[in-house]
Amino acid sequence: MDFFNEQQVLAAKELLYKIADDHLILGHRNSEWTGLGPLLEEDIAFSSMAQDKIGQSEHLYNLLHDLGEADADTVAFTRNKGQFHCCQMVELPIGTYDFSLVRHFLFDFAAAVRFDLLAESSYENLAKIVKKYRGEVKYHTMHANTWMMQLSAANEESHTRIQNSLNELWNQALGMFEEGPYEGILKESGIFLGEKVLKERWLSVVLPLLEKYGLTVSAVNYWKPVNGGRAGQHTEHLQPLLDEMCEVFSTDPSAEW
Amino acid sequence: MDVKPVKAKPMISKEEIIEVLHEVKDPEIPTISVVDLGIVSNIEVSPAGDVKITLTPTFAGCPALKLMEKMVAERVRHVEGVGTVEVETTFDNPWNTDKISEQGLLALKKHGLAPPPRHSSTSQLDVLERMACPWCGSTNTSMKTPFGPTLCRSMHYCDNCLQAFESFKPVE
């Protein structure tokens, strides 16, 4: 990128890696619902969202390639766990449907706000791509919202399940907004307003919805973001996911597809 | 000195390329061509007949895109007078459902897909709750799920003719 100086390139790479890795890993988790969805429509929904997310990650890896990183397949399939920058929430196993649904709700509203912010980015190639993604993620937030609304009101069991998953995931979700070492550069150069702004905007969208559905989150002073993922610290769940995801690729990395 | 008239090699025009691209269909919806689908965003033809075609994906994760790139390159390569062929993908001027031609909307309907409404903003997805049924035309319909057999389709039910149907999702 001609307008980037060295520091800005590092900052842009860090930003691209975390977004791309979040989408690749959650995309892979979503794909695990293929064949297992509680309804055929949900099976298809999670499979479609998986396809969207993995496709979105691919174009972000292509941007990284333009900035000098290896090509998309190499980056996606040959890094070890410590080189991934996804937040820990996305790597957690799919669990029960209510768990995957609440994670999908928390994640996709954050992705939508992130894309809104990045659509105004000075990094034009990124802005162009996320404008495209905005149209796609609207269907994801719509889907999440529909089911959150229905299941939080259906009966006591469904409400309890959604509330319990929310309790389990809230601090995990706050880990999406872990700050990186380049927040200042990203903001000054107009690439990205930063994780703090993103988090505030996400809260202003998500909290009123949760309240509307009769769901609660703990008081702010109890919030403890699960950080570390952006710096390559991951749970024991990521490596088995990578092993499975890369199994076919690893049998012959030089194969032509 | 006699100058023999040199028979000029006929220049390939952009229009000729568009014409042959009408033969290249979306592998997932074989009634619609890549031109009518609106994914051909640019065509450049050099004086030497070298062709550069730019495609833009409907959805970022569309698995048919790479196949369509190949199909487009293959078809254009066989046009007489064409030199090199280059096909690339871009997000400049990204695709939306208004890029589908009138002909394209008819082709979707022919495939049994409700065409997306014109100028629909996806910020108002309630349009999905009253898609016109491709079988009977009624708007007494409801959306069952915003996801379908391909990324670009949603699934609906018509309360008038009691048929399930799919729709091409509006994307802005």
Offer a few descriptive terms.
heterodimer; A: 257 residues; mainly alpha; Ferritin; 11 helices; B: 172 residues; alpha/beta; GMP Synthetase, Chain A, domain 3; 2 domains; 4-stranded mixed beta sheet; 9 strands
Quick one: which chains have the greatest interface? A-B, 26 and 25 residues
Distance between the termini of chain B: 64 Å
CATH topology of chain A: Ferritin
Tell me the structural class of chain B: alpha/beta
Number of strands of chain A: 0
Number of strands of chain B: 9
Number of domains of chain B: 2
- What structural class should be given to the helix and strand makeup of chain A? mainly alpha
The number of domains of chain A is 1
Strand content of chain A: under 5%
Map the helices and strands:
The complex is a heterodimer of chains A (257) and B (172).
Chain A: H1 6-31, H2 40-66, H3 72-78, H4 88-91, H5 97-118, H6 124-154, H7 156-174, H8 183-188, H9 195-212, H10 238-245, H11 247-251
Helix pairs in contact in A: 1-2, 2-3, 2-6, 5-6, 5-7, 5-9, 6-7
Chain B: H1 14-21, E1 25-26, E2 29-33, H2 34-37, E3 40-45, E4 51-55, H3 64-77, E5 85-89, H4 102-110, E6 113-114, E7 141-145, E8 153-158, E9 164-168
Parallel strand pairs in B: 4-5, 6-9
Antiparallel strand pairs in B: 1-2, 3-4, 7-8, 8-9
Model description:
The complex is a heterodimer of chains A (about 260) and B (about 170). Chain A is mostly helical and about 260 residues long. Chain A has a single domain, classed as Ferritin, core subunit, four-helix bundle (Ferritin). In chain B, the strands form three sheets. Chain B has a four-stranded mixed β-sheet. By secondary structure, chain B is an alpha/beta fold. In chain B, about 20% of the residues lie in helices and about 25% in strands. At the A-B interface, helix 2 and helix 6 of A face loops of B.
Summarize the structure.
The complex is a heterodimer of chains A (257) and B (172). Chain A is mainly α and 257 residues long.
